[in-house]
Amino acid sequence: MPDRxxxxxxxxxxxWVLEPALAVVLxxxxxxxxxxxxxAGALAVLLYCAAVALSRVLPVVALEIAWLAVVAELSxxxxxxxxxxxISAVAVVIALFGIASxxxxxxRWFGFGSAILWAPALAYLFTVRGDxxxxxxxxxxxxxxxxxxxxxxxxxxxxxxxxVSAWLLGFLVAxxxxxxxxxxxxxxxxxxxxxxxxxxxxxxxxxxxPRLVRRLTRPQLTFDIAGAVAxxxxxxxxxxxxxxxxxxxxxxxxxxxxxxxxxxxxxxxxPAVSLAIAWLAAAVQMTTGHNILVSDIAVLVVxxxxxxxxxxxVRYAGLISAGVGALVAALYLTLTSALAQGYFDLLSSxxxxxxxxxxxxxxxxxxxxxxxxxxxxxxxxxxxxxxxRHAQIVAELDRNRAEEVVVVEQERTRIAxxxxxxxxxxxxxxIAQADGARYARHADQKTVDPAAGRTDAGGTDAVDTALETIxxxxxxxxxxxxxxxxxxxxxQPEGPQPSLADVEQTVEQVRAAGLPxxxxxxxxxxxxxxxxxxxxxxxxxxxxxxxxxHGDTTRPASVVLAQSGGADSGPGIVITxxxxxxxxxxxxxxxxxxxxxxxxxxxxxxRATLAGGSLSAGPADEGFVVTAFLPVxxxxxx
Length: 638
Known about the structure:
Helix content is 64%, strand content 7%.
C-alpha cells in the first residue's frame, strides 16, 4: 500500500495524459477494425474522441463537442456501421464520467441532462438508422411499426441507464474529492479521476461519508473474491448447457456471467461501481436476446449491497435502479414473449393480454428487486444498531470508571479534612510536651545539691514522662501523616472529629430512622490511631446508610467490632456490617444500560486502604456483608 501510494503520488502531475491516451486508443480501434473510410464517420469519431480527450482539462468544451458530435450524426443522411456506434457510445460514457468528475456544479447537472437526452438519440441511431433492427410487426404509426417503437423505447432505457451510471460514478468521485483531506491516494479508481493532488479516502468506514471505494481487510477481500468464484461455479453447474455451448449465444451468456461475477466481487469494495457493472451486464444480456438466466441472481446481490454498504447517494441509486430495472425487465420479457408466440400482425388483437402480462411482470420484478434492496437496508439498520449498542456500552463503562475516580477523589478530600484536626492536635501535644520537658530540665538544674552530688528525682521523672508522651504522640502523628495522601484543604470541619466510641451514637440514629440494628463488641478495641478511628467510624456509618437505603428495613442489621490477632493479617480490628437485601423485582432497563456506580463502596474501600487495611463487600447468605480490617500499630495509643 505505501509503495503504490508513492507511485500514484509521483504520477499525479501526469494524470491529464490519461484521457487523451484513451481518445487515441478509441480512434485507433476505429481504424484497426477495418471500417471503410468515410468522411462523415471519421469526423464524428474525431469529435467523440476530442470530447474524451478534453473531459478532464476542459469539461465545458468536452460537453459542447459531444453535443456537436451527436447532432452531426443525427443530421447525417448516411447510416454508419454498428462498430462505429459502439465506439461512439463508449466515448460518450467516458466523456460523461470526466464531465461529472471535473466539471463545476452547474456543468455537472448539465451533463446529467445531456445523458438523459443522448440516450434516445443514440438509441435512434442504433436501431432506426443503424444495424440493430427489430422485427417489423404490429400496427403502423407514423410510418413505423409498433415493434420498432417498443424496441426504440427499450434501447433508450438501456442507454439511459448506462449513461447515468457513468455520470453517477463521476459525481461520486467529485463528491468524495471535495470532502477528503489531502494526502496519498490508496484507491486507483479515485486517483484516475482526481484532477489535482492526491485525495485520501475518508477514514469513516460506515455512515454516509462520500466514499467511492471502501477499504477492506484481507479476509473480507478474500471472502468477496471467493464468493464471486462460487457464484460463477454455481451458475455454470446450474445452467451448464446454455453457458458452455460453443455458439454465439453460449459465448454471450458466458460474457454476461463474467461481467455479473465482477459486479459480485466488487459489491462491498465499491457498491456504486458494482451497480454500474451490473447494469452493463443486464444491457449486454438484453441486447444479445437472452431471456432470464441463472446469473441474474447477481442483480439481487448487488442491490442488497448498495443498501447495506453504499452511502446515501448510492442507496437511493440502488432503489431507483430497482424500479427502473423492474420496468425494463417487464417490457423486455413482454416483448420477447410476443415474439416467441408469433403475434406479428395479430399483435393488435393481443394488446390487452400483453398489457396484463406487462403489469404482472412489472409487479413481480419490482417486488423481487425491491425486496433485495429492503433486506440490505434492514441489515444496515441492524448493523448500525449493533455498533451503536457497542458504543453505548463502552461509553457507560467509561462513565462508571470516571464516576469511581470522582468518588475516590471526593473521599480523599473528606479524609484530608478529617485528618486536619488530628495532625494539628498531635503536633500541638508534641510542642507542649517538648516545652514542658525543657522547663522541667531547667528547673531540675536549679535544684542540684552540690554537697550530696545528686539532682532532684522528681524533675527527672517529669522529663522522662514528657519524652514518652512526645514519642507516643509523634508515632501516632506519623501514622496519621502516612494516611494523608493528598494535600490538606484549607476548609476545616467544625466540631470534634468522630472516633470509634461514636459508633454507638450512629447506630442509635439508624435505629430511629427505622432500621433495627444490633451492635456487638468483642475483645480489646484499643490501639487505633485517630485517623484509623475516623476511618472505622466512616465505614460503619456508610455501610448502615446503604443498608437503610437499599436493604430490607423489616429485618435487623448487625454491626460487629472484633479484635483480630490472626497470623496472616496481624493484630487489628475487624468491622463487620451485615444487612438483609430486598427481594429483587425484575425491572428491565429502558436502554439496556449498565448499573451505575454509587459513592458508598468506593469511598469505604478508599478509607480502609488509606488507613493501612482492606475492605470487601458483596452479597452473602441472602444478605449484604461489608467486612473491613484496620491494623493496630504497635506503640500507638488512641
